[in-house]
UniProtKB/TrEMBL annotation:
Family that this chain belongs to: Belongs to the cation diffusion facilitator (CDF) transporter (TC 2.A.4) family.
UniProt protein name: Ferrous-iron efflux pump FieF
Domain Cation efflux protein cytoplasmic: 219-294
Spans traversing the lipid bilayer: 12-36, 42-67, 88-111, 123-141, 161-183, 189-206
GO biological process per UniProt: intracellular zinc ion homeostasis
Cellular compartments per GO CC: plasma membrane
The gene coding this protein: fieF_1
Organism this protein belongs to: Roseisalinus antarcticus
InterPro entries per UniProt: Cation_efflux (IPR002524), Cation_efflux_CTD (IPR027470), Cation_efflux_CTD_sf (IPR036837), Cation_efflux_TM (IPR058533), Cation_efflux_TMD_sf (IPR027469), CDF_Transporter (IPR050291)
Domain of life: Bacteria
Cell location: Membrane
Length: 307
């Protein structure tokens, strides 16, 4: 299905998913701000922070989709995707600060002799249920788009929103426990658990962004997959100097392949170009550069690079 679609169709489908994601995040932030004001629930505060993060990540994803359609320029020969990693670092810092504020407030409420009661739990429950339904609709559309276009940005955003259902369900439990059983302290416990999950997510996001900015290689599975494609490709007698680095959603691949030195330049070029297309088909986010060497050539004595 994906191969039958043109590049502009891919772009417009991905763009629709990005715009819907930003719109949903905006609506949820506004709704949860109102619910927080009505209830004073820390669990809702945690889901509000998560929705604010969703808004930033969705906006970053939308920008990434727009940048994907923009060619590299003279000043940015490898594109502009590292901006995603810079944005991710700032997002991770925002999450850590927010988790810290929620944790301190939750601990103070738990240690207080007179814990603050929750109010208007019904309004909060209605907002959380609305949030769950709206999130499910968004995830279904994102998964449809990701299947049609193969966009990793849309797929990742879909997975992130799916994970957001957990803190929303925690907030729902806290509000129900307060409304039905009068257990207002459950709210602080749920908030502490949500804050812990936020810290773990921030560390994961920050580490991935830092690794990309430090030119860390792609994951071992990707490296093995690229090597396997090269090993099994017709006309390729061997390969060496496989190097990769990540920048945002892109994976840059440099690969030296060994070919029959007696063939024409046109034949060698055709083999290299076909291999590049095969790698890009298997890894759509890859930017591949292939250098062609004659097989069994003796390295120059001054060339000390490992092969």
């Amino acid at each position: 299905m994906r191969n039958a679609m043109s590049r502009p169709e891919h772009y417009h489908l991905n763009l629709s998913a990005g715009v819907l994601s930003v719109t949903v995040a905006l609506v949820l932030v506004a709704a949860k701000l109102w619910a927080l004001d009505q209830t004073g629930s820390l669990a809702i505060a945690a889901t509000l922070t998560d929705s604010a993060l969703d808004l930033m990540m969705s906006a970053g994803g939308l920008a990434a989709i727009a940048y994907a359609a923009k060619p590299a320029d003279d000043d940015h020969a490898f594109g502009h995707t590292s901006a995603e990693d810079l944005a991710a670092l700032s997002q991770a810092a925002f999450i850590l600060v927010s988790a810290g504020v929620i944790t301190v407030t939750a601990v103070r409420r738990l240690l207080s002799d007179t814990p603050a009661p929750l109010t208007s739990e019904g309004a909060g429950i209605a907002v959380i249920l609305f949030s769950v339904v709206l999130t499910l609709i968004l995830v279904l559309w994102q998964r449809h788009v990701a299947r049609r276009t193969g966009s990793r940005v849309v797929a990742a955003d879909s997975l992130h929103y799916l994970g957001d259902l957990l803190p929303n369900m925690g907030a729902l439990i806290a509000l129900l426990a307060s409304a039905r059983l009068g257990l207002a302290q459950i709210d602080s416990v749920v908030a502490l658990v949500a804050a812990m999950l936020m810290v773990l997510g921030a560390v994961r996001i920050g580490r991935a962004a830092w690794d990309a900015l430090m030119d860390r290689a792609a994951d071992p599975e990707t490296l093995r997959g690229i090597a396997r494609i090269a090993d099994e490709f017709p006309g390729v007698l061997g390969h060496h100097d496989l190097k990769t680095r990540r920048a945002g959603s892109r994976v840059f691949v440099n690969l030296h392949i060994e070919l029959d030195g007696s063939q024409t330049l046109d034949e060698a070029h055709a083999t290299g170009a076909a291999l590049r297309r095969a790698i890009c088909a298997a890894y759509p986010s890859a930017d591949v550069l292939i250098h062609k060497d004659p097989a069994n050539v003796t390295p120059h004595p001054e060339d000390t690079r490992p092969r």
